[in-house]
Predict the 3D structure of the following.
Amino acid sequence: MANYEKISLERGMYSYSGKSMTDILEELDPSANYAGSELEGLDAFSRQLKRFDIRVSGAKSDPVEKFFATTDSAALFPEYVCRAVRQGMEQADVLSDIIAAKTTINGMDYRSITSTPTDDEKSLVRVSEGAYIPQTKVSTQENLVKLHKRGRMLVTSYEALRFQRLDLFTVTLKQIGAYIARAQLKDAIDVLINGDGNGNPCKGITAVNTGDISYSDLVSLWAELSPYEMTTILAPTDAMVKLLSVSELKDATASQDFHGSGKMVTPLGAKLIHTTAMPEGTIIAIDKNCALEMVQAGEIITDYDKLIDRQLERATISCISGFAKIFTDAGVKLTY
C-alpha cells in the first residue's frame, strides 16, 4: 500500500516529452490503489509531499528549504512551482469561456482545420430519395498557428528564499500564472478580431449611435451571429459602463445578480465577460462552442535543473500557446 515511500525521485523524471512529474508519479504509484484508505483523494505528487512531510499551504506551511532537505525531495520543487503557477492560471481563467477545443502538441508546428459554410450549407434542407446531399467542407488552414511564448523569470536565490514560508511563495507563483493567463487571453482576443493569419478577420457591425451601445445594437449583434448561438460577449471597461446603463438590462433580477456577485446577465442569454484585453470602442459576441481552438506546445515549462540545484537566479517559467479560428463567422464584432 505504501508504495509512494519507495519511489526514487530524480531530475530525469522531467525529461519525458508531454508528461509532467505528476504524470510520471501516477504511473509509478496509481491513485486508484489508495481507494478506501486515508490517502484517498491525494494524487501521486501530494503523496510525495506527505512522504517528506512538506506543507505547502496554511498557517503552518514549511519554509522553502524543506524541499532541499534531501536529494529526493529537491526533485519535487520544480513540480511544486509548476502546480502553483497552474493554480494561478486557473484562478484567472477566462479562456474556458471562449475556446471550443484545446489541443496539446509536442512540437512547434501545427496547422488547424476550418470550415466556412455558405448560407445554404448552414440549413439542413430536405433531400429527396436519390438526390444530391449538400456538403460542408472542412479544410486544413493554409498557414500554421502562430505560437507565442509567455512567461516570467524568477530573479532570486536560494539564500534569499530558504526561510520564506511556502504559502507566501505560492502567492508569488500564482501571480505569475495569472499574468500568463491574461497574456494568453489577449492573444485569443487578437485572433478573434484580426484572424489567425488565414484571411479570416471577424465580421463586424456598427452601433446605431456613435459612442453608445443600445439594446437594439445587442439585438443586431445577436441576429448577425445567427444561426450560431450567442453564448459569450467580451467587453472592455468603457463598454461595461455603457451596457450597465442600458435600460433593458436594469430589470430586478439582473440588478440583484450584479449587486450580489458583480456578474451581469444579459437578457439575450449570453455570458458577459469584462476584460481589459479588449480594445475600447469594441465588443465581440461569439459562439464559444465553435469559434476558437487553443493550441499549446506542452505544459508549463520550468528550468528544473536550476530549481533543483538551488541556483534560482533567472529560472524561467513559461508556457507556449496560440489560437486558431474554427468557424470563421462564429464571432461578430460591434464597433460603437
